[in-house]
């Protein structure tokens, strides 16, 4: 039998992380910046959860986007951290909602209002292609779906891309006119 030893850890002070070994640039495959739900558990929240509790949970866990499910575990939308910003809550209260009774469903972006990438397109795209689309639509996050299977395959995050590229990525929300114009082009 071969003899193995344990060694002193006094000289060890760095962690190995996947991004240390992935050389990613704008020409890299978009699949390298994609959080694939076949490999990573999606972050979900119940539509009936308190909006205030959801904001606290997202802040504590450093999460910026969660998928929203109804009581039947059906996908109904997404909630982003910025959707729970105090100014958004104030708008709802001004429209007659009780702050303490606000739910995720009151604050979320509904499924029918979302724009998504198709996984088959994503496999052909580069990181630069993804960033161009995210910038064009002003999205920090974008779901990736397999349309034929009616499934959400994963998510792409501009902040994840920025971290992997080790550079700043600036995504600004389009003006209301730009949103209207872009939506008219895609009908």
UniProtKB/TrEMBL annotation:
PROSITE patterns found in the cross-reference section: CBS (PS51371)
Domain of life per record: Bacteria
This protein's UniProt keywords: CBS domain
Keyword Endoplasmic reticulum: no
Matching Gene3D superfamilies: CBS-domain
RNA-binding recorded as keyword: no
Coiled coil: none
SMART domains (alphabetical): CBS (SM00116)
Name of a matching Pfam family: CBS
Domain CBS: residue ranges: 108-173
Protein name: CBS domain-containing protein
